[in-house]
Structures are given as structure tokens and as C-alpha cells.
Specification:
Blueprint lengths: L2 H29 L7 H15 L6 H5 L5 H24 L1 H30 L7 H21 L3 H8 L11 H21 L3 H16 L2 H21 L4 H8 L3 H7 L6 H17 L3 H33 L5
Length: about 325
């Protein structure tokens, strides 16, 4: 067992749970008062949390192809960028269908990515990986809870109306059944994980369930994206980056973690500059339009990001040693 790598996985897992728990406590407390969070305040909180999560998907080129092959490196960047541009144009043009596809794709990406993290954290602790049944039990609700529940919350309709009226009734007549199915699946999975004594995985699902219920939908997703999924995914990048592993060998877990963050910081500036550019070109409401542009860019980048990370997500699943 590599003690430093273990501390990185353990620390990111604890951090994400603490952030989710604090968010639940904060917004649960607010619900018992007369205080109301304005839309602009929600947008600010969401933009901050989303910004924190942006770098985790901005270094796919560093973990996918060898840097000593200039031709392959250039080709990867070109194809990756082209896919993202096509996805952004498709979402911007076909708002509803594009959004629905992104919802499904994101739920699968988040769920299987977080379950791959759980399996890798077992390996970092020197333990056998989880069984495929346990991983599947965890993966589906882990991905659908932070996506489907906020988007089917009645409070979301006003938010979507503010962002893009075409998305207000995005699930149509399936809204209630989709929400109930997700809740049933989550509760069933929690019970099964408790019965099989996978308490940490069960706790994850409980926290994600509570976050989706108590936090405003927009903020709930942003907290999950920036302070849960992105943090855990960054931990998974550490063993794949020589610069980060050099710090691991020196016993510096925090420095190792940030060595996987700093190469992607440029993406925050780039995405925000793009957002400002499109807003300035012809916007009526800066706050909502800016957030809409940021979300479209992030969703578009998720398409090639998901394809890139799917390979080592599957590898993490296969590392399970139990049937």
C-alpha cells in the first residue's frame, strides 16, 4: 500500500462528504427560517462551485496519449476540440434534445466515474476491489441522484425558465415517474449496501439524496460537480501524472493532489472568457445568460471528456478481484 496515495484517496473522500454534509446543514437550516436565497445568489454560488470543478476535465490530453508523440498529441487535441464544438452547437441549437442527451450522458458518467473512484480507493488502501454487483448497485444512483433529482424538483422550473424557457418541461409527462424511479432505486441501493456492510458507499448515497432535497437544485448540482465529483476525479488523476507521482514518492499528499489541479487551471479562465464574450455579444440578463453559456460549454466538454475517461473507468471496474 502506498501510504501517500492512500491519504489522497481518503482525504478527497472525506472532503467531498464533509462539503455535502455542510451544504445539507446550511440549506436545511435556511428552510426553517424566513430567509430566501435569491436567484442571483444561487447563480453566484453555482458559478463558484462549477469553476472549482472545471480543471478536473481539462487535462485529458495529459493522461490519454504520450507527450513524446507530437502527431498523436496534436490529432487528439484537434479531435477533442472538434467534438466539443459540435456538441456545444448541437446543445445551443437543439436545446431540449441536446439537454436530454446531456442529462443521460452526465448521469452515467458521474455514476460510473464515482464508482471507479470507490474501487480505486480500495486498491490504494491495499484492499480487494468491490464486487461488480456492489459497483453496479452504487454507480446508477450515484450518477442519477445529483442529476435527476435537482432537475425534477419543482423549484427547478423557475430556474430553468430563467436560464432557458425551452428546458422548463424537459422531461415532459415522465417528470414524476423519473423522479420516483430514481428515489426508489436510491433507497433500494442504500438498503442493499447497508445489508452488505458497504457503509461508506451507503453514506455517499444518503448524502447525495439529502443534498438534492435540501439545497436549491442549481446549487445542489454545482456543489456535487465542483466539491464531490471533480475532487474525487482529481484524486484518480494523481497516479496517471508523473509530476504528481514524483510528489507522492516524496510523501506530499496535498502537493500531489494540486499537481493534478494546476495543469487544468487555464480552463477556468478560458471558459469564463468565452462566457463573457457570448454574453457581451447580445445578452439581456448577464447573470442568467452567463450561467447558461457556462453550462453549455461544460456540457459540451463533458462529451469528449466522458469518452476519454471511459477507458480507465472500465479498467477500474475490472480491477475488482471478487466475482
Amino acid at each position: 500500500m502506498n501510504q501517500t496515495l492512500f491519504r489522497i484517496y481518503q482525504g478527497t473522500g472525506q472532503f467531498s462528504r464533509v462539503m455535502a454534509a455542510l451544504s445539507v446543514l446550511l440549506f436545511a437550516g435556511i428552510q426553517f427560517t424566513d430567509f430566501e436565497i435569491t436567484m442571483k445568489a444561487q447563480v453566484v454560488l453555482a458559478v463558484i462551485a462549477l469553476a472549482i470543478g472545471i480543471p478536473h476535465g481539462a487535462i485529458d490530453h495529459l493522461i490519454t496519449i504520450p507527450r513524446n508523440s507530437t502527431r498523436r498529441f496534436t490529432a487528439f487535441i484537434a479531435i477533442y476540440t472538434l467534438i466539443a464544438i459540435i456538441a456545444a452547437l448541437a446543445i445551443a441549437h437543439w436545446n431540449l434534445v441536446g439537454f436530454q442527451l446531456v442529462v443521460l450522458m452526465s448521469a452515467l458518467h458521474f455514476g460510473f466515474g464515482d464508482s471507479a473512484y470507490a474501487n480505486e480507493s480500495q486498491g490504494a488502501a491495499g484492499k480487494n476491489g468491490y464486487s461488480k454487483l456492489v459497483l453496479a448497485t452504487y454507480a446508477i444512483p450515484a450518477g442519477f441522484l445529483p442529476v435527476v433529482l435537482p432537475l425534477t424538483d419543482k423549484r427547478t422550473f423557475d430556474v430553468l425558465e430563467e436560464l432557458n424557457p425551452a428546458l422548463t418541461n424537459w422531461a415532459g409527462t415522465f417528470t414524476e415517474s423519473l423522479r420516483n424511479s430514481t428515489l426508489f432505486l436510491a433507497i433500494s441501493s442504500i438498503l442493499l449496501l447497508v445489508i452488505t456492510k458497504k457503509y461508506s458507499l451507503a453514506l455517499d448515497l444518503v448524502l447525495l439524496l439529502m443534498l438534492s432535497f435540501f439545497a436549491p437544485p442549481l446549487v445542489a448540482f454545482a456543489v456535487y460537480f465542483g466539491l464531490w465529483h471533480a475532487v474525487r476525479h482529481t484524486a484518480r488523476l494523481v497516479p496517471k501524472l508523473p509530476s504528481a507521482m514524483h510528489k507522492v514518492s516524496n510523501g506530499k499528499p496535498l502537493a500531489s493532489f494540486f499537481a493534478a489541479v494546476t495543469p487544468g487551471l487555464y480552463a477556468i479562465l478560458g471558459i469564463f472568457l468565452l462566457g463573457i464574450f457570448f454574453v457581451v455579444r447580445g445578452s439581456t440578463e448577464v447573470t442568467s445568460d452567463f450561467l447558461w453559456i457556462i453550462l453549455v460549454i461544460i456540457w459540451a466538454l463533458t462529451v469528449p471528456h466522458m469518452a476519454t475517461t471511459a477507458k480507465f473507468d472500465l479498467r477500474a471496474f475490472k480491477s475488482s478481484l471478487r466475482p
